[in-house]
Amino acid sequence: MNLFKSVSEQLAAAKERRERRAEEEARQSAAREKFEGIHRLRLSTAAAVSSVVIVCHEDTWAFVERLVFPTPGTGFHIPFYGSVDSQHFPAERCRVDRGTGMATVTLSGPHLVR
Fold it and tell me: Which H or E run contains 25?
């Protein structure tokens, strides 16, 4: 009798684990679909922009620049698969006011998407 009860408990526990796993997969799928929908909307909105001017502290811009335009072997960065020229971007489009330490950065549409 104990052997039967043990097997039936194991089967019930396995069924419960499958149900929880299916619920978690459904939650993750819904979250992924929501994220992708918002991401597509942001991309289409950003693609319509000709340029954006950002004013931030130069340290903040340096951090963002390292994430978006990494040099090889520097560690974490935001992956991007596109054709944005990162070689000449910062020098030509970033002005820093040495008095306040504020950076004025002009981003084009493709840079903004990135």
Answer: helix 2-47
Which pTM was predicted? 0.46
> At 41, which amino acid appears?
L
User: Which residue positions in the chain have pLDDT lower than 50?
Assistant: 1, 88
Q: In what order do the strands lie in the sheet with 94-97?
A: 51-57, 102-108, 94-97
First to last CA, the chain: 64
Six token digits for residue 78? 């935001």
With H, G, I as helix, E, B as strand and everything else as coil, classify residue 17.
helix
The predicted structure's pLDDT at residue 21: 95
Length of the chain: 114
Whether the Cβ atoms of residue 37 and residue 85 lie closer than 8 Å to each other: no
Q: Which residues contact 41 (CB under 8 A, 6 or more apart)?
A: none
What local confidence, expressed as pLDDT, does residue 57 receive?
A: 92
Identify the bridge partners of residue 96 per DSSP, sorted by sequence position.
Answer: 103
